[in-house]
Design a protein that fits this description.
The chain is α/β, with parallel strands linked by helices. It has 14 helices and twelve strands. Strands 6-7-8-3-9-10-12-11 form an eight-stranded mixed β-sheet, sandwiched between helices. The protein has a four-stranded antiparallel β-sheet with strand order 2-1-4-5. Strand 11 and strand 12 form a beta hairpin. Helix 5 crosses helix 6, helix 5 runs parallel beside helix 7 and helix 6 crosses helix 7. The longest helix has 26 residues. The structure holds adenosine-5'-diphosphate, iron/sulfur cluster and magnesium ion. Magnesium ion binds next to helix 2.
């Protein structure tokens, strides 16, 4: 093994740093002008190790899908860094990007919408192979027979009868269609699969089958998953670690068992308290944290905690200071001022605002000093 290969294997497979994905809001009929931005993803950082599953959970509209679409380079990120297997994707050449896309595949929530209804299952699954083969980007060129054999193998591996390869997506059930989507995602033998709510549209019994298939495939092929869901039970079942997202930010990151045993962020606690528990005795007696209002629109820049409006534990300090990630224990981090070593609870709103203003002025002064030095 070369030094470079050994080094790559020791590093996380995917490292995301301060990733932002802002969508411009334009106004004007003839002369369009940007008047604001939807801050769908507003500075997220995390890494994913080879062979693990990082679950991303959060209510609808928190920026989960946008995050993985930016990682898959379906959007050009506004800023930040995405390093996949040692390659910085945001500045990669077209060829490096194509090679990275071979290793990064996606599975979508609605397999019917993501599969072309005019294509047979055989064409759907073989398409990535045909494209990459034509461009000479496969490790070994494939003949038409090789591709046909690979399609049949993939169909069998995901639990589909290969005799149905000439059928169309509408001839299959929802669960079978998701299996077609998985076979297509596996065609190029990727390293990581970005799964966007892959079981949310399926019946509970079918969900379990697809989750089991995904875990079996992971063990067999050493796959890495970045797995999105809004259902906490699904995330708990599949994940090694979990990131909780709120309004474009990661508010808690931890090993799955720690998150479920010891949720720290008020948002995580509220989410967990709202999830149904199958034991009727526990279900009757437990306390629910009811969050007021909905997730706000991500169209304004925030200067305090993003969860402030809905937080049952908020302090004046939180309204004008964005919390960084505080370390709770090894591998468990939480973006909440409750875990700062300084106690902010006793401060009045006036004191908190004066403090925020003072640190803003200090930053401005430092900025102008640097500017003056450069001149
Ligand atoms: N292409 C886009 N243009 C403008 N706003 C978008 C776009 N895609 C998503 N958004 C907005 O970004 C926010 C996050 O969306 P999304 O990533 O789909 O959240 P989630 O997957 O967590 O439900 C939402 O407010 C959504 O309306
Ligand atoms: S920082 Fe403050 S407002 Fe934000 S979650 Fe923590 S306690 Fe609530
Ligand atoms: Mg989504």
């Amino acid at each position: 093994m070369s030094d470079a290969t050994a080094m790559k294997e020791r590093q996380p497979l995917l490292v995301v740093k301060d990733l932002k994905q802002h969508f411009p809001i334009d106004a004007g009929l003839v002369f369009k002008k940007q008047v604001g931005a939807i801050r769908a993803v507003d500075g997220i950082s995390f890494s994913v190790n080879a062979g693990e599953t990082l679950g991303i959970v959060g209510e609808s509209g928190c920026g989960k899908s946008t995050s993985i679409r930016s990682i898959a380079q379906l959007y050009k990120p506004t800023s930040g860094s995405i390093v996949f297997n040692g390659t910085e994707l945001t500045t990669a050449s077209e060829k490096d990007l194509l090679l990275a896309r071979r290793d990064i595949q996606m599975i979508f929530q609605d397999p019917y919408a993501s599969l072309d209804p005019r294509m047979t299952v055989r064409s759907i699954i073989s398409e990535p192979l045909v494209i990459y083969n034509k461009r000479g980007l496969l490790d070994k060129p494939m003949s038409a027979i090789d591709i046909e054999t690979r399609v049949e193998e993939l169909m069998e591996r995901v639990g589909l009868n290969k005799a149905f390869k000439n059928r169309y997506p509408h001839e299959f059930s929802g669960g079978q269609r998701q299996r077609i989507g998985i076979a297509r995602a596996l065609a190029l033998s990727p390293k990581i699969i970005l799964a966007d709510e892959p079981v949310s549209a399926l019946d509970v019994s079918i969900q379990a089958q697809i989750l089991n298939l995904l875990t079996d495939l992971q063990k067999e092929m050493g796959l890495t998953y970045l797995f999105i869901a809004h259902d906490l039970a699904v995330i708990e079942y599949i994940s090694t670690r979990v990131a909780v997202m709120y309004l474009g930010k990661i508010v808690e990151l931890s090993k799955a068992e720690d998150l479920y045993m010891k949720p720290m962020h008020p948002y995580t606690r509220a989410l967990l308290s709202a999830a149904p528990i199958p034991d009727p005795k526990v279900e009757r007696t437990r306390q629910r944290i009811i969050l007021s209002g909905d997730v706000p629109s991500p169209d304004k820049e925030r200067t305090g905690c993003y969860f402030y409006d809905r937080c049952p534990n908020k302090m004046p300090w939180c309204s004008c200071h964005i919390p960084p990630m505080f370390k709770i224990s090894e591998g468990h981090e939480c973006a909440c001022w409750l875990y700062d070593s300084t106690d902010h609870a006793g401060q009045s709103m006036e004191e908190a605002e004066a403090d925020a203003l003072a640190s803003l002025r200090a930053k401005e002064t430092a900025g102008s000093d640097i500017g003056a030095e450069r001149k």
